[in-house]
Amino acid sequence: MTEILSVRNLSKTYPAQGKTLSVLNDINFEIQQGSTVSIVGPSGSGKTTLLGLCAGLDRASSGSVVLNGIKLDELNEDERARVRNQHVGFIFQNFQLLPTLTALENVMVPLELRGERNVKASALTLLEKVGLAARGHHYPSQLSGGEQQRVSLARAFSNSPKILFADEPTGNLDTETGQKVEKLLFELNRDAGTTLILVTHDLELASKTNRIIRLKGGAILNDSL
Ligand SMILES: Nc1ncnc2c1ncn2[C@@H]1O[C@H](COP(=O)(O)OP(=O)(O)OP(=O)(O)O)[C@@H](O)[C@H]1O
Ligand SMILES: [Mg+2]
């Protein structure tokens, strides 16, 4: 088994009113390629922060993250963006769709960044997968929360990522849509070998992954490995 992600002595602090707020404290784990992992824990325990650091969206205060053999700490902003575009899919807790682009255009962005051909057709196929082919011309503000979540999912799938980070991917969805999304995520893992790391409050969803990492107060309380 190969390691796709290695997190060593990772800490994150924020300055807060002259003091230092410790959000993550000495986090350590390794994740094997092709596995499925859930990160669970109470609100404010640092789950989103941890996901952002692992995906190279943000920089740690100390410690290291090695993603697919690349040391993220040694890269600048542009280099990290390139690594993300090449290897990483990310589904944000708050979607983060570009408001001035339609659903279809949002999905096209990563494909265009990669300089792919037939970008529009590929994006449409991805929207079809999440059941939104008919809504491609709508702007995010014209879509429901669940629909935006599914556009975000299609966008995250678009670069066939080696590793997909999903921050509460079913959190805003009704049971039926949630199950569809869940199915898509596990299919991607099974068919494309994409490593899946998801943050969830849904313990039933978490129990379907190979491993559960439990955070509390910015530290690992328990790792089922
Ligand atoms: N930019 C920031 N500046 C200061 N504090 C921050 C910042 N970002 C996050 N925090 C703090 O870090 C802590 C962890 O936040 P985080 O978003 O990682 O939690 P979470 O586990 O994802 O919670 P939830 O389940 O509510 O999404 C919170 O107390 C939050 O207020
Ligand atoms: Mg969060």
TrEMBL record:
<dbReference type="GO" id="GO:0016887">
    <property type="term" value="F:ATP hydrolysis activity"/>
</dbReference>
<dbReference type="InterPro" id="IPR017871">
    <property type="entry name" value="ABC_transporter-like_CS"/>
</dbReference>
<keyword id="KW-0547">Nucleotide-binding</keyword>
<keyword id="KW-0067">ATP-binding</keyword>
<protein>
    <submittedName>
        <fullName>ABC transporter ATP-binding protein</fullName>
    </submittedName>
</protein>
<dbReference type="InterPro" id="IPR003593">
    <property type="entry name" value="AAA+_ATPase"/>
</dbReference>
<comment type="similarity">
    <text>Belongs to the ABC transporter superfamily. Macrolide exporter (TC 3.A.1.122) family.</text>
</comment>
<feature type="domain" description="ABC transporter">
    <location>
        <begin position="5"/>
        <end position="225"/>
    </location>
</feature>
<dbReference type="GO" id="GO:0098796">
    <property type="term" value="C:membrane protein complex"/>
</dbReference>
<dbReference type="InterPro" id="IPR003439">
    <property type="entry name" value="ABC_transporter-like_ATP-bd"/>
</dbReference>
<dbReference type="InterPro" id="IPR017911">
    <property type="entry name" value="MacB-like_ATP-bd"/>
</dbReference>
<dbReference type="Pfam" id="PF00005">
    <property type="entry name" value="ABC_tran"/>
</dbReference>
<dbReference type="GO" id="GO:0005524">
    <property type="term" value="F:ATP binding"/>
</dbReference>
<keyword id="KW-0813">Transport</keyword>
<keyword id="KW-1278">Translocase</keyword>
<dbReference type="GO" id="GO:0022857">
    <property type="term" value="F:transmembrane transporter activity"/>
</dbReference>
<dbReference type="InterPro" id="IPR027417">
    <property type="entry name" value="P-loop_NTPase"/>
</dbReference>
